[in-house]
Amino acid sequence: MGSNVMGTSVVCQVGVIVRDVEKTAQAWANVLGVEAPSWSLTDPKEESHINLLGKSTDARAKLAFLSLGDQVQLELIEPVGEPSTWAEFLKEHGQGIHHIAFHLKGMDEVIARLEAHNITTIQRGDYTGGRYGYMDGVEELGVILELLENFD
Amino acid sequence: MGSNVMGTSVVCQVGVIVRDVEKTAQAWANVLGVEAPSWSLTDPKEESHINLLGKSTDARAKLAFLSLGDQVQLELIEPVGEPSTWAEFLKEHGQGIHHIAFHLKGMDEVIARLEAHNITTIQRGDYTGGRYGYMDGVEELGVILELLENFD
Fold first, then answer.
1. Has residue B1 got a pLDDT over 80?
2. Is residue A124 over pLDDT 90?
């Protein structure tokens, strides 16, 4: 029994690909009995440094968040432009659950350890205050993992 | 702003369809640095009363669970036989995240309220100590919901 590769087991987000973030956020708000959250557009590539399989891309996404209990946020993701893991998922599967996310420290070391488990990098980028990495665990784990590292 | 249709917002499981539950449980155990969980087979239809779109089916599934923090369990699901929502998902999408689950009370009333939101019943059944219902929220919410009601 080895150590925890990500340094955490605590899932913090469930990421869902949708066609219309505003409409879907309103539908979730209706089901949960809360106010519909506003959405925001991911930063342009000059700021987000987004790359898909190591290549820069113009793709962005509209994001909205709802709370599913204290531990977990629901993240609604509407792909804007392409190519991105978000747009590819929508094209291949339609609407559906794209990933589960974990907050961690030491992104580069965690990615190196995951790659040793055949879980490879799909897409990376920055957001205000942190950075993310999507890891292709579909074959090994059945899921795409998102790694989130907030800067101190 | 209406009331909460499910009576809860607390996600308790993320359900993942896999081809080989034993292999995938071991891969997750390796990543999380824990012992691999054992798996169990769902009850035969005489006990589970499983039905897909209202019709009884011989389909079953092998299940294994890992903890993703205090609030959420990862549920690995290997379809056994068909037809079931599990087998259909594997055929259509390959391995991936099938649903998110919520514990609630008053299954029939919750289902009636969800159906009024165009979120319809896919599959229902019993397990030892409770019952479940999968609800097709893919179009409205982007996800399949699983409702879980443990008997008192």
1. no
2. yes
CA pair distance B101, B11, nearest whole angstrom: 6
Tokens 């292709």 correspond to: A136
Q: What is the ipTM of this complex?
A: 0.98
Cβ atoms of residues A73 and A65 within 8 Å: yes
% residues pLDDT > 70 (chain B):
100
- A-contacting residues of B 49-68, CB under 8 Å? 66-68
Domains present along chain A, CATH in parentheses: 12-99 (3.10.180.10)
Give the separation between CA A115 and CA A109, rounded to whole angstroms.
10
Average pLDDT along chain A? 97
Residue A1 clears pLDDT 90, i.e. is over it: no
Q: Do B33 and A5 touch (CB under 8 A)?
A: yes
Consecutive H or E run containing A83: none
Residue-wise pLDDT tens digits, B109-129: 999 999 999 999 999 999 999
Interatomic CA distance for residues B16 and B13, integer angstroms? 10
Q: In this structure, what token pair is assigned to residue A99? A: 């990933």
A69-98 b/e (C-beta count within 10 Å ≥ 16 → b): eebbbbbbbbbbeebbbbbbbbeebebbbb
- Any chain A CB within 8 A of the CB of B80? no
Long-range contacts of B55-61 (CB under 8 A, 24+ apart): B57/B81, B57/B82, B57/B83, B57/B84, B59/B83, B59/B84, B59/B86, B59/B87, B60/B84, B61/B86
Q: Report if pTM > 0.80.
A: yes
B67 Ramachandran zone, left/alpha/beta (phi>0; psi -120 to 50): beta
What is the arithmetic mean of pLDDT over B130-138?
A: 98
- CA–CA gap between residue B75 and residue B95 (Å, rounded): 13
> Which chain B residues have a beta carbon less than 8 Å from that of A142?
16-18, 24, 76, 95-97
